[in-house]
Queue: 3 jobs
Job 1
Amino acid sequence: MKFFENVAKKVFNKEGIKILEGHVAYSPEEAVAICSEMGVPVVLKAQVLTGGRGKAGGVKFADNPGEALKVADEILGMEIKGEKVKHLLIEEKADIQQEYFLSISIDRSERRPLIMVSKEGGVEIENLAKTNPEKIIKYYPQPLIDFLPYEAREIARKMEVPSELIGPMGDVIWKLYNVFDKYDCEIAEINPLVLTPDGLIAADAKLEVENDALYRHQDLVNMLHYKKKAVDFVKLDGDIAVIGNGAGLTLTAMDMIKLNGGEPATFLDIGGGASEHVINQALNIVLNYDPVKVVFLNVLGGITKADDVARGVINALKQADREVHIVIRLTGTNEEEGQKLLEEAGIPYEISMENAAKKAVDLCNELKAKE
Ligand code: GDP
Ligand code: MN
């Protein structure tokens, strides 16, 4: 069974191989939220089980959340070698000085594992294998005895890496072999393993586990159960972003906007019990949606706590890189604390939904009159 890069990387990392900070996104909006939170620049990578994504346009970079939205939208609609892209891995962009190739597989004719490495890794590895096979170093470890760190260093030396890298490179090769052995792999591969100012990092990861051994690795299979989406987001035609907790309340807020002559730009339900983090994420999504002129945040705290909402709002506004016009209605659980936090941060709020909706529409009309 083949595993996606994001799962493979977690497994490699568990065995001590360095990876970059990364998060999975299922929609362009989620990609924006992740980028805003991580800071940029980032790399966005199609999660498919085939290789060659880079050449097929499935690996792209973004320098700001707006770019991330565009790029994520492009990649999520793609098909790579017949496989539809359903999710992305978003990582901080590595500052690459050199790309190496490390691969461990089963050589069936030799009936034992085969380690292959090269100091010329990256997307051209298949061509290199054809044109310059001598640049790929092969080593057959003894399957019945332990693969030892000195053997791994010997491989690194044959790779002709700079002398100060022989130790660290040997260490990664040894750890990758441990992954291969421990997880009953058919393939464990890092292409490229990249040299950065922070050392050697796995920038890609391939992991294939022998099907008959899967029952021993339920932990891997469990990692395939993806998390549920945190927010429900629908784009509409207007210019007032409506965010609420709970579908009913959000729909009511939209009706109130309409009643006052406004047009909603979004329906965004943050759900019950939304954390500070989710609020921050929701605001980042709408703030990166261009048609939005005014944000109407309508929260009636129940399981959702007003003070968490206030903290999420304050953080999101601090990080925003554009002027934000927001009208907040905040009441319910912990309202005193939440309202106090907003006051201290100099952010006005309303108690009544009717007043807040009217204020949002008026504000939007004012802004449009100025344009
Ligand atoms: P593959 O084409 O499916 O093997 O996808 P990879 O994950 O190997 O990415 C392809 C290529 O994109 C790599 O060989 C790198 O040259 C480049 N790449 C991937 N991640 C990064 C990154 O974080 N920073 C930079 N600068 N390049 C990257
Ligand atoms: Mn690769």
Job 2
Amino acid sequence: MTLIAITKPVPPTINECELSHMDRQPIDVMRAQEQHAEYERALEAIGCTIERLPIEAANPDSVFVEDSAIVLPEIAIITRPGAPSRRGETASVAATLRRYRSLSAIEEPATLDGGDVLCIGKRIFVGRSARTNDAGIGQLRTIVETFGYDVEPVPVTACLHLKSAVTQVSDAAVLLNRKWIDASCFRRFEIIDVDDAEPQAANALFVRGRVMFPRAFPRTRETLERRGIAVDTIDASELAKAEGGLTCCSIIVESV
Ligand code: CIR
């Protein structure tokens, strides 16, 4: 089985990105591009083939491809991002995913961002957030229930997306910030708390049994390692200024 990681380059316009829970700070575009290249190399090192789509200068947030699609083994669902400025990002992702999966799409008036969707086995947690509405959750449920998935909504108010507050870090464990979401939704899993001093540390990328993790959060990294979870760290500090984490910068597709 091959793992494809779909990415898009950091556009020169990234300083015009959407921001919801952070103050705007200047983003050094070259540094962001270098960090993004390091991210792609880290994915390659764990066996992913990078499929880099063309740069989209007209879409300041286009590097955050995760928000454009949900990919399951059976189907890919093209989203309708909650921020109107981001709706132009989905076409190129759909054109690529069509080669790997049959496609379905979230339709108006529904909105759904990929960052709000956390799939663990046959359970799909979906953040009800400023970006993802009830119609989006409902349409997703209708599409995936035929394949045997359960959809569980999780309220998200304190941060941008569900995956800003919780991600999977092993077959059995999630890394979570319980100040931002209700941890009881994840009671079936072993819960690892982010360090109190690192509220933004919950977004880790779990691929092929490995965890890619931002270098900016050494205390949470220590907690993960104490719990037996080895991590590869990368510097994603410039992309973090655009409110993006590690999961946001790729769409992982298992291809047979
Ligand atoms: C936004 O606000 O849409 C972007 N500046 C950040 C998106 C990050 N995406 C993600 O967490 N999945």
Job 3
Amino acid sequence: MIGGLKTQISPNLYASILKSCISRKSIGPGKQLHSIFILNGSIFHDVNLATKLVNLYSVCNSMPYARYLFDRMPKSNIFLWNVLIRGYAWHGPYEDAISLYNRLSDHKLVPDNFTFPFVLKACSALSAANVGRKIHARVRDTGWNTDVFVAAALIDMYAKCGCVADARQVFDEITERDVVLWNSMLAAYAQNRLPAECLRLCAEMAAAASPEFRPTEGTIVTAVSASADSMAVGRGRELHGYSWRLGFGCNDKVKTGLIDMYAKSGNLTAARFLFDRLTAKRLVAWNAMITGYAMHGHAHTALDLFNRMAGELRPDHITFIGVLSACNHGGLLEQGWNYFDSMVKDYGLEQSVEHYTCMVDLLGRFNRLNEAYDMIINMRATPDAGVWGALLNSCKIHKNVELGEAALERLVELEPGDAGNYIMLSNIYAQSGKWEGVTRLRRSMAARDVKKSVGCSWIEVRTEIHAFVSGDTTHLMSDEIYAELRSLGDLLARAGYVPNTSPVFYDVESDEKTAAVSSHSERLAIAFGLVATPPGTRLLVTKNLRVCEDCHTAIKLVSRIKGREIVVRDVNRYHHFKNGACSCSDFW
Ligand code: ZN
Ligand code: ZN
């Protein structure tokens, strides 16, 4: 149709055609117009039309065309530059967005409240905090620092670069905050895995709510995912109620977030209740439910659900992580292989390193370490620390020094500063009596100045999250907590528990003294949970590192002696301690 347009057609009509192409992101008619302009030699006569054409190429991710026109434009203005900067910020190369921004002043152009969010988005994509900081300074100079959209973009940039304190400063400087700004700050905390801060801010936001200003669906989704991350079920349940009061109770996105939260915290009944009542079950909801069952050791339920899902929807990579970890937790080697192969065969999904990690774990469980090693060596994806860590872990369990060393060598290359790797290998040496190996490792750790990570655990009691570091004495109830630990120590001793006093570092967080083992962060959190909740209450603890063997043994006994169900989610998996046993069957 457009091909038949004659040149006498008014520029206004061209403009409106281009406008509708831009809003539909439809490049075809735009390209035809472009050829007409070239043919009748009018391409750069009308800057407005040419700018629209650049805009169209830019929204349609045809950056080379956009750039070609841009470079030939006789006159330029900030709008035109914004269009191109936005294109690069959306589609890359992100560096080009920044270099264009840097060239603005050569053309005597001043960045505005559109330029800044676009170029900041490019900084986020590149994690270029230093460039971002310079842009922030310019924002202040140009007086755009009170603009909510610019501020939200700054918060997002700092958050993506991991500078949460800077993000918060931007947030605090704005007095007239709108929902966008609040949501950006909440997301900043959530992305940086600071669930406690996220939930605290969400409570502040709820308190500031008014008929004109109230949390949105996005607010609730972010806050619910933060509660899922810290297993803050109480707070999550409050949010569940709050979402009803705000009228989002039937919102599928909110519900899906809640399913994930309940599933992660092990309340699979509540998760399933919501899941069954979703109006449309999206892939994320299926994935949350399948992964939930898998992680909490209900392998068969997870696989049944997967089979149901596969009849309705096409699974993705995340689904298969859930499925393979179900096989792993259930010790289903053959099924694991079948699903692993079926990814490519039946669904055309290339296995990623996470899927390999599940298989290495599974093979490790059956002491098929050579197969696991070959699998890593021959895998298509690039092996990462996770997959080598899985092998090393299995080597520790089956006391395989040779492969353990091989895995560690790779791990040290990939994460030279991580003490956990050295400690695990030292455990392998110690268990097979190779003391010279232990000494050598200690020396190389000292030579490389490897710092041990600080262990930290969280527990939620009455919707407040309490954090503990190893050996922590700062909690308000510290006296009660240590008294409880002492009394537990006596009870444990009577139950036949002997703390590990061998000279090896048995733990991933501290090898100083074995006395320190009893004040590992998860034990402090559990002791606090025991004194601060009524008897019989289930305790949910999250930990940033692996649970050490000594704590694992002690917690098993505590669950029996105190008649409590204790769930510890460490960096690798969930441990459900009940009646003196753990769901991981001591394999983790
Ligand atoms: Zn420990
Ligand atoms: Zn366990």
